[in-house]
Hints:
Distance between the termini: 25 Å
Number of strands: 14
Largest sheet: 6 strands, mixed
Amino acid sequence: MATRRPKANACRVAAFQCAPLADDIPGTTRRLLHDVQWCETQGVDLVVFPECFLQGYTTDRHLIANRAIAADSPQLQAFAATFAGLTPDLIVGFIERRANGFYNAAAVIRGGELVGIYAKNHPNEQAFLPGNASPVFQTRAFTYGINICADANFPACAQRVADLGAQLICYPLNNLLAPATADRWRARSVLNLQARAVETGCWVVSSDVVGHHDAKLSHGCTCIVSPVGAIVARVMEGREGVIVHDIE
């Protein structure tokens, strides 16, 4: 049976909620390839994965320096080439090395090539420098932009990509926190995403890690929010999973 594709004026989006991984780019790449290949069979146009997922999220300066890779490095180029021949755009968080320091970034991969990078504008990690650009990208009939995790606390950050024509804002997240902090942010993370959707009139899609790791906890905040703030799909808290939705 042929894969059912979304309508011409729609974009089929998938967002994954994943257990955190670290220091295993080959293993993470295999995991991502499996997931994106599945998305291909579902007619998905855009796939979103969590913050810093490629190398593993950390706030430790030494680990950040060890894990960081440059956008033009053979390592990142080889990672992108893994997805050659696959239809969906892929957004995956990674730790980027630049000449002036390190950035909490998200790579946009299309057809096996790196087509763009967004660097977190409001990093809450002291070892990361703030990005100062808000690129937008086109897939099918939709224009999308990216904010990362703590950026959701800043309405102007979402508004910048909306002002550049984005109809969809993608949020790679990593809410792996001390348990008491995770509990405090459990509802607030969702409310932030709903507020950004309503303020900008954009769809919002988030992808988060989930579970316990190194005495930290993430409940998981992977959801799709409509421009009126309604949660139209969400992965169950505490579990890995994926949501797929056609946005029009």
